[in-house]
Design a protein that fits this description.
The protein is α/β, with parallel strands linked by helices and 255 residues long. It is 36% helix and 26% strand. It contains nine helices and ten strands.
Amino acid sequence: MEKLLKVEHVVKYYGSKNIITQALNDLSFEVKEKEFLAVMGASGSGKTTLLNCISTIDTVSSGHIYLSGMDITALPGSKTAEFRQSNLGFIFQDYNLLDTLTIGENIALAPIIGKMKRDRIASMVEEVAAALKIHHLLDKFPYQVSGGERQRCACARALICKPGLILADEPTGALDSKSSQTLLDTLSNMNKDRNATIIMVTHDIFSASYCSRILFLRDGKLFNELLRGDKSRREFFGEILDVVTVLGGDAKDVG
């Protein structure tokens, strides 16, 4: 697998000259194509800041982030929206669906904004909805379906334009256990069957056990890294729990 993302000596400060907080501290790592990577750490460890910098929603104080060889930290502000639309897919904890649009229309937003032809958009929506088993929901509105179904719609919206990288921020945070498992199965299938590269920020050990690799952050630095390899999810869960215990706090506290 080829390298897709490279985070190189990234530092991020917040605040004024009187009160400065260092959110990321000389952080470096790489992500290969088709990886399913989790980022874990206690509250304030820097994981959401990292996701925001990768997505160009926030800027780094120093260092570089490369996506497919392009230095996205050097992008001018006028180009960031176009970059996100062309290269990234997003899955949020609160779905971020538009209540006045149907499920199908929500999924179609990115290609509509990209001014693709209507018949092409329709076929793309049909294809991704069938893959995520929400074809029967396309004419319904978000308030007419369950939270798990809304989140699968969000997955379809993220996947429809086949972005180079999908960023998921606590995607199971608002779901019950059954819906969470369905979503995680969906993400895993997106990764395995559709070759989606996914970075998922999560506080949940069960969710992280679906991933192929986990980065643990503490105080903005890389604290530890786990590779699943050929281990079962149960075995991997135990390894994750051991690291979380060392980090401090139990599973529900690691966010």
